[in-house]
Amino acid sequence: MFKIVHAQFLAPGIKRFVIEAPRIARKQKPGQFVILRIYEQGERIPVTIENSDPDRGTINIVVQAAGKTTNLLNTLETGDSILDVVGPLGKPSEIANYGTVVVVGGGVGTAMAYPTAAALKRAGNRVLSIVGARNKELVILEREMREVSDALMITTDDGSYADKGFVTDKLKQLIQNGTRIDLVVAVGPIVMMKAITELTRKEYIRTVVSLNPIMIDGTGMCGGCRVLIDGKSEFACVDGPEFDGHKVNFEVLVQRNAMYRNAEQKSMEEFKRSREALAVEPEPACVVAQTAQGVER
Amino acid sequence: MSPTANKSLNPLSPKERIKVPRQAMPEQPAEVRAHNFEEVNLGYSAELAQQEARRCLECAKPTCTDNCPVGVKVKEFVELIVAGKFLAAAAKIREDNVLPALTGRVCPQEDQCEGKCLLSKKVKPLGIGYLERFVADFEKQVGTHVVPSVPPTGKKIAVVGSGPSGLTVAGDLIQRGHKVRVFEALHEIGGVLVYGIPEFRLPKQIVREQIDYMREMGVEFETDVVVGRTVTIDELLNEEGYDAVYIGTGAGLPQFMGIPGEHLNGVYSANEFLTRINLMKAYQFPVYDEPMLDLKGKNVAVIGGGNTALDAIRSALRLGAGKAYVLYRRSDAEMPARAEEVHHARQEGIDFQMLTAPVEFLSDGKGWLAGARCVRMELGEPDASGRRRPVPVKGSEFDLPLSVAIMAIGTTANPIVQSTTPGLDTNERGYIEADENSQRTTRKGVFAGGDIVTGAATVILAMGAGRRAAKSIHEYLTTGEW
Lengths: 297, 482
Prior knowledge:
The complex is a heterodimer. By secondary structure, chain A is α/β, with parallel strands linked by helices. Chain A has helices at residues 22-27, 68-73, 110-122, 142-147, 167-176, 190-203, 236-239, 250-257, 261-277, 284-290; strands at 2-11, 14-20, 33-37, 45-53, 58-64, 81-82, 84-89, 100-106, 126-133, 151-156, 163-164, 183-187, 207-210, 226-229, 232-235, 242-244. Chain A folds into two domains: 2-90, Elongation Factor Tu (Ef-tu), domain 3 (Beta Barrel), CATH 2.40.30; 100-257, Rossmann fold, CATH 3.40.50. The model of chain A is unreliable at 284-297 (pLDDT under 50). Chain B has helices at residues 14-19, 30-33, 46-53, 63-66, 74-82, 86-94, 100-106, 128-142, 164-174, 192-195, 204-217, 233-238, 270-279, 307-318, 339-348, 416-419, 451-454, 459-479; strands spanning 156-160, 179-183, 220-222, 244-247, 253-254, 267-269, 299-303, 323-328, 351-354, 356-363, 369-382, 388-392, 398-401, 404-407, 411-412, 446-448. In chain B, 54% of the residues are buried. The A-B interface holds A 23-24, 27, 37, 41-44, 68-69, 83-89, 216-224, 226, 228, 233, 235, 238, 249, 252, 255-256, 258-260, 262-264, 266-267, 270 and B 185-187, 195, 223-226, 229-231, 252-254, 256, 258, 262-263, 265, 268-269, 271-272, 275-276, 279-281, 285-294, 367, 414-416.
C-alpha cells in the first residue's frame, strides 16, 4: 500500500497526489513514469511523475480524469492509499546542454514536461517554455514552469487566459522570429505532439515527444505498448517513453489507443451509475469550478 | 537399502503390474470445460493413485530420477503411495522439489521422468506427474505441512523475480537458515505461474498456497519492485546489506515476426493476451477493470506451437471464440507443447493448422485485424535446432479471416537488470552468463538461473537451476570463497 500524504486539485479534473514511495523517490529522473493499480479489481495504468522528494521519500503524480480509473483515483484524498505503485519506469529524458530548448506542455502533459524543463535548465540550457490548455482553468503548473524557464508563453484554445491559440502558434512565431532552437521537447495530447513534429520537421529541428500508449506491466514483458518508430516496433515502456518525434507513427498510436474504447465507455458508465447511486457527484473533478451545489469534500 | 532387495510392499508381480492399464486422469468433459476456466484435470482419488502406483516396476536403477531436473526420488515416493503413506510421500518429494503441486501439473513428464520409465518400452509409462500431483493435493487437504525450523545463519539473500526459479531458491535457502527476500516487479507473486499459465491448467489458488507456505517458513516478499529501476543489484549488495543476489527474472520480452500488419488492433503477443486474462482477470470484466476484446463468435488464431500458444488459444476458446486455430509452421512431431495439452486442445475443438505460417496481417481498412495471409510449409533439411526447417510452398498462399491473432513465437531476454548491473556479462542473445553447475555469474555474490540464463524453457528446468543455485549460494555464504 502506498499512502497519499497530500492530494490537491490543480485544475478541474486534474489532481496532484503526493505519495509515500521512498524507493521510487530515490531513483526518479525526469521523463519517467509509474504504473499504479488502485484496488484489487483495478487495471494498471501509467501515470506521469511530476516531481519527487528523496529526503521525504515521496513522489508527486498528476492525474487527469478521463476514464473510470482516473476518475476513481481523483476521488482519493489525503490519508487514502493506492494499492500498487511501481516505478520509476521508462528511460529518463536525455539531459545535456543543447543550447536553446523549447519545452512544450499541452494540458496535463505539462506535468511531465516540467521536470524535464527543470533539468534542462539546470544543465545550462536556455529554456523557452510553451504551455497550452483548453481554457484558463486548465492551465497547470504556471508558477513552476515560470521558475525553470527563461521565458514562458501560455496559450488557451478559447482565449480565456493569456494568448488565444495553440502551442504550435507560439512555436511558429519563435521560428519566424529567427530564434535559434536546438531541441524541442513536446509532451501532451497526441494531436498536439503530431502538429509540433510536422512544424519542426520542415525546419530540421530535433524534436523529442513522450508517448502514452496502453500499458500493463511496464517492464517490456507484454508488448502491449508497442509503437511504430521509423517503421520498427518499439516498446514505449522500456525503449521510451520518449522518442524522436519525426520517426513516430502517430496514426498507429491513435488507432491502438482506441482499442478498448467500447469497454472503457462501459466501465465509465457503470462507474457513473454507481457514484450516482451513492448520491455522490459522478465527476468529482468538475466540482471545484463548475457545480454550484458542490458536495462536501 | 533398495526396496527391490527387500520384500516389495507391492502385492503385484512385475508381470501383473504390466497388465494393469495406466489409470486415466479424471477430467472435465471437453464440451463443458471449453466454456469455463476451471481446471481440466480433476485429480486421482486415493484408490486410483494406489492402483497407478502399483504399476511401478521399482527398477534397481531408476532412470526416472536421473531424468528429473531436480532429481525427485520417484521410486521411493511411489512406494510410499503403495503403502498408503501419502504424507510421507509428499515429504519425500519435498526433499528435492519445493513446489510439487505445480510440477505435477505443468512438467513435460513425457520428456523427463515418464519418458525414461521402463514400462514405456511395453505399455504406457507410470503416471508419475499424476501421482506427484495427488500427494501434493492430499497434503494440502490434510493441511499439515511441517514448517522446518533451523538456526539462523545471519546471512541475507535477495531473490530477483518470484517465478518458479526464484521460489525454489527462496524455499531451499530459507531451509538452510538464511534470511531471504524475494522482489517481484508485478503486483502478484508467482511470475509466469500467475501471469502466464492459465487457471484451467494451474489454479492460482495452488500457487498462492505454495507461496503462503513459503511465508510461513519465513520468506519475505516485496511486490512492485522492478530491480534495475526501483533498486539496482549494486544497491541491494552495498546499501541494503544483502550477502548474495539471485537473478531469476525469466525470459521476458515477447517476439514478433516483423511481418506487415502486426500493429493492427487485434494482434497481441501471447504474453499480453495471457497477462490480461490470468493476472488482470480481464475475463471477469467488468467486475475487474482490465478490458479484453470481445471474442464471442470471433475467429481467433495463435501463431506458434509451444505451451504458451496452447494456453493462449484455449483461453480464447473459453472466452467464446467461434473458431480457434493454431498456426504452426512445422508438423506435429516438432511441436514443443506438452503432449497432454495438445491432446486436451484437440478434444476441445481447437483447429490445428500445421505447416502453416502467416506472412501478413490484413486490415479491415480502419486499423483493425481482418485476417491473415498464410502460406503452407514443407519440411526441408534440419536447422540449427536440429528440427527440420520449414520451407514455404510456392503458390500456397491463402487468406484466413480473423478478428484476433496471438503471437506465441518465443521471447527474448529482458535487458533491465543486465543493463543496470556493471560487470554482469551476457551472451550474444542478451541472456546472463552463468556457470551451469554453480549458477555463478561474472559478478561476485551474484547468481542467476532459469530462463534469463537459458532462454525460454520449462518451469522444472528453472526450478532445477534454482536448486543448484541455492546449493551454490549456501556454499559461498558458508565458505566466503568465490
